[in-house]
Amino acid sequence: MSLGDRINQFDVWLLDRVFQPFADRLPERLPALALGMSFQFGAIMLSAASIVAMIVIGHMSISDAMFNVLVWCLGLAFYVGINRVRPLVRPGHMNPLRVMLSGMRPLSIPFAIYALYQGATAPPHFEIALWFNSLANIIFVAGIYLISCEVRPPGHRQTARARFGRMQEQGGL
To answer: Secondary structure of the chain: what % helix, strand, coil (to 5)?
Structure first.
C-alpha cells in the first residue's frame, strides 16, 4: 500500500469515525455544515488577528506582512467558494464537498501540527500572534472535516441519538 493510500485511508477513518458521529449527534437546528462554516469563518478571523498582532506589536512591517495577507486572502477565497457551493449539500444525498475537499483535508493536518509547534516554541514576543495562528489552523481542520460530513435526513439523526442514549444506559460508553 502506498503512502498516498495510507493518507487517504486515515482521512476517511478520521472523517467517518470521529467527525461523522459527532455531526450525527448535533442538534437538528445546528447542522454540521453550518458549524463547519462557522469554524471556517472563525479561522479566517483568528488568522487576521494573528497578522494584525504581528504588525501592531511591531515585529513585522506592513510590507513584510504582505505574504501573510495574501495567504489570508486565499483563506477568504476558500471560504467564499465553499459558501457558494453550500446549496449543493442536501440531507439524504451524498455531500459533494466530501469528494471535493478530499485533498485539502489531509493536507491541512500537517499545517496545523506545524502551527502548534511554532506556537509552542515561539519567542515570547511572537507568542500571542503565533498562538492565534495555531488556533486558526486547528479550527480550520475541524471546520473542513465538519463541512465534509454527510448530512443525514432528520429521522436518521433521531435514531442515531436514541441508539447513543441506549448505549450510554447500558454502560457501553
So the answer is: 75, 0, 25
